[in-house]
Amino acid sequence: MADQTPKNPTAPSGPVQIRNTKVHVDRDLCIGAATCVAIAPNTFLLDSEAKAIILNTADADTDETILDAARGCPTAAIIIEDAAGNKIFPK
Predict the structure, then answer these.
(1) Which regions of 3-91 does DSSP assign to beta strands (E)?
(2) What is the CATH number of domain 16-81?
């Protein structure tokens, strides 16, 4: 079981820095489908409001796995940017 502590307790849905990327979950778009949790269980967990939060253990998932989780989100609620702030996903 992954550590269920948010990476940023004051902003559990981000944005947070994971290696060379910034990851953020748009809570207004998140519908709690949990596809992200299935694909990247070290990175994402649904909170008590069924919204995805970013976990302290996110570094255990690869960048590609986190990107796949973002691609799998039915509402494109997961936003990934590179170190310069350029949007990687969604385009």
Answers:
(1) 16-18, 21-25, 44-46, 52-54, 78-82, 87-89
(2) 3.30.70.20
Name the nearest CA neighbour of 23 among 75, 59, 49. 59
**Alpha helices, H only, the chain:** 35-39, 63-72
Helices and strands: H and E segment counts in the chain: 2, 6
pLDDT average, residue stretch 44-60: 97
Any residues with CB less than 8 A from the CB of 83 and at least 6 apart, and which? 20, 21, 22
Identify the pLDDT of residue 2.
53
The pTM (predicted TM-score) of the whole model is 0.94
Instruction: Work out the mean pLDDT of the chain and round it to a whole number.
Output: 95
β partners of residue 55? 6
Delimit the domains of the chain by residue range: 16-81
